[in-house]
Amino acid sequence: MTWTGHNLSRRAALATTGGLAVGALLPPGTAGAAATYTNPVIWQDFADIDIIRVENTYYCSASTMHYSPGAPVLRSYDLVNWEIAGHAVPVLDFGAKYDLSGGRGYVRGIWASSLAYRPADRTFYWLGQIDFARTYVYTARSVEGPWSRHTTLPQVYYDAGLLVDDDNTLYVAYGNGAISVAQLSADGRSQVRSQQVFSTPSSIGTLEGSRFYKINGNYYIFLTRPANGQYILRSTSGPFGPYTLRQVLLDLPGPISGGGVPHQGGLVRTQSGAWYYMAFIDAYPGGRVPALAPVTWTADGWPVVQLVNGAWGRSYPGPVVPPPPRQVTPLTGADTFDGTVLKPRWEWNHNPDNGKWSVNNGLTLRTATVTDDLYWARNTLTHRIQGPTSTATVQLDHSAMRDGDRAGLALLRNSSAWIGLKRDGGATRVVMVDGLTMDGNWNTTGTGIERASASVPGGRLWLRANADIRPGASRPGTFSYSTDGVTFTRLGPAFTMGNDWRFFMGYRFALFNHATRALGGSVRVTRFELSTP
C-alpha cells in the first residue's frame, strides 16, 4: 500500500532477496485464447485487491479508506471486463469522525481487507480491521446486498486474508512483518486460536497484504513487499505451518509507462484450471489500478508469473472461460440518476447526511454543512476517474441556491480544485477555484483561491472537468462551463494534480453543495457523464 521506491508499510506511514525469480516468458499470440486483453484491465482506482471465483463468476474487493459506502465488490465473467456490483460495508459506522463530526477520517477506514465465499451457508464474507482497534465481518447472500454486520472481533487482523477451508473452517492470515494465522469459530463470530507462523527476514524488510489459499492440499499465504515485491509462503503441514518462503517477483517492470511494480493482489483459478494473478499498480495521480497476468506452477508447487520480454505484459491472450451470460455494466458513460437509489459507481466523501440528499430521476443535493472548507463539507459525492484521461460533464440546476452557497464539480484529493457556482448578494457566478490543500496529517491548510469567474444567466449550467491521470509526473486538470450543453468555455488556469502516494486514494471527480452562511439551499444534478477520448 505504498508508492514506488518506498519500502514503508501503511502502519509505518500512518504512525510513521532471495528465492524463486520471476518466471518464463510468455510469447505473444500463445494458442488457446480467442482474443487478447490489455493492461491495466481496469484503469480506475481499485487497490489491495482480493479476488475469488464462485462457479462461473469472478468477484474482487478493494480498499476505499474514508469513502462511504466502503469496500466495493466488482464482478466479472471473464477476468477482463468488470462492473461494480455493490459494497460490503454499507456505512462507516466506526465513529463520529466518519460522519465529519468532531473529527475526520481521511486516510483511515477501509484498508486492505478480504472477500470470501462459504459454500456451506452460500454466503459471501468480507473481513477487515478498522483503525487498529478491532476487526469487522460482514456477510451477504449476494454481492449486491443487503450486506449486514456479522460480528465484531476484538482482535486486529491487519491486512487480512480469509480462507474457507475444504471443511468450511474459517482461517485468517494477517500481520505486518510478523505473519500470523487465526482460526475462527464455526459460526465465524469469535477466534478459536491464533499463532505466529512466520517472521520476515531483515533482508526483505516488510511483508504484509496477506491472501490465504489452499491449493492441492497445501496452504499458501501470498504476501507483498510494499511497493515493489511479492512473496509466497507454503505449508505442507496444515494452516499453522511450518511455512517456507519463495520470492514471486521483485522490481518487475509494469505495463503502465511511469507506473510502479505490480504487487499486492490475489490469485484465482479459472473454470478450465488456468491461474491468474490480479495485482495493483501505483499509478498516481489516478491511484492504484488493477493489472492481470497468467500464472503457472512449478513441478514442486510454486507459482510463476508469466512475463512478456522480461516484464508484466501490456497484453496477454484472454482467459478461456464460458460465454458470459450478459455484458457487464460499463464503468464509464452517463448517469441520469434514474430510479430512487444511487448506482454503485458512486461513493460519498465520509458518510452522508441522508436527510440532505435524494435521487428521483435526478440527484438533489441540499446543503448539509455550513463551512468554508470543502474538506469539512458533508454530502460530497465522488466518482473514480477513468485513465489515462477522461472528462466528467455535469448538468446542474442551481435555481434553488441561497446566498453563501457553493456548489460544483471538483477534482478531489489532498490538493484540490473545482469549477462551480458562488451565490452571493442575490447574484450567481461561475468560478474556478484552486488552493484547497491538506498537510501530511490531513488537516486543512488552504480553503481555496478564486482564479477566474464569469456571470451566469438563467438557472441551469453545464460544468466540465478534464483529468489527465497518466502516472510518472504531476498532471493537468482543466475546467470549463457551458450555458447550452454544446459550446464550452475554458475557465481558469490548469490545475496541477500531484502524484505523491501518501494520500493513498487517487484523484476523484466530486459533486458538492455546501453553505457558508445558512442551510436551506439545494442544487439538482440531472446528468453526469464520464467520457474518454
Mean pLDDT: 94
Overall, the morphology is globular
Report, as a whole number of angstroms, the end-to-end distance: 30 Å
- Please give the number of β-strands: 39
How would you explain this protein's 3D organization?
The chain is an all-beta fold and 533 residues long. Helices cover 1% and strands 47% of the residues. It contains one helix and 39 strands. The chain has one helix at 10-15; strands spanning 36-38, 50-54, 57-61, 67-68, 70-76, 82-89, 114-118, 123-130, 134-140, 148-153, 161-164, 170-174, 178-184, 191-199, 208-215, 218-225, 229-235, 244-250, 263-269, 275-282, 288-297, 303-305, 315-317, 333-335, 346-349, 357-359, 363-366, 381-384, 389-397, 405-412, 415-424, 427-438, 444-455, 460-468, 475-482, 489-490, 495-497, 508-515, 522-531. The strands form eight sheets. Strands 24, 26, 27, 29, 34, 35, 36, 37 and 39 form a nine-stranded antiparallel β-sheet that branches. A hairpin with a 2-residue loop joins strand 15 and strand 16 (218-225). The longest helix is centred in the first third of the chain and has 6 residues, at 10-15. The two termini are 30 Å apart. Mean pLDDT is 94; it is low at 1-8 and 13-33.
